[in-house]
User: What shape does this take?
Amino acid sequence: MRVLVIEDNEGIAQGLRTTLRQQQMAVDIVSTIASAWSALQTEAFDIVLLDLGLPDGDGRELLHQLRTTPKKGLPNPATPVLILTAREEVTSRVTTLDAGADDYIIKPCNTEELAARIRALHRRSAGRVNSTIYCNELEIDTAARTVHRSGKAVELSAREFAVLIALVDSRPRVLSRTQIEAKLYNFDQILDSNAIEVHIHRLRRKLGDTVIRTMKGVGYFVPNDPSS
Ligand code: CA
Assistant: This one.
């Protein structure tokens, strides 16, 4: 999962980076509305964490700009937005929710609560009602980060799990290697050119050949019906 954190307090931003990386999320941090907007135009983020008091304006301006963008290409106007707010900002929490924010969390955030809220927003935007995904013969628990294949536990690395979730959440859409990479790695990470192929190869070994399919020259996908 790819998360954009918009926060100008460096201490808070770094704390969020550490917490979210521990949850195997790819995190990019920006500190202004201008840099946030250019990041949103460059990358498809799964979740945005938005501070309200930013050096070049109010976070709500960015929220408004995002929500009123026509839906074509990037940024995606429906990107879930979680507001980072101070305890005393009750009025602004209300107006921000009314302006299109999906949820808020009070700073300093409890790390487990933050991770759970992010998972909940992601789940909702992927159209799921709880943390378990049933896909073909797989049972994937996105909160506990476990996978069972026909009732038997399968050990996946954090990256393998992230690749699987990216494909399962998008199914039956085909994702290119670049689109999968974007969900796993933030802007400043250098990665091996065949990293995704290696993860896919290992996933197929562990989950069987029928779960993840290749569309030659395009990318990978998980079919809705494994017999198709
Ligand atoms: Ca601030």
Observations:
- Residues 132-221 form a domain with the Arc Repressor Mutant, subunit A fold (CATH 1.10.10.10).
- The chain is about 40% helix and 20% strand.
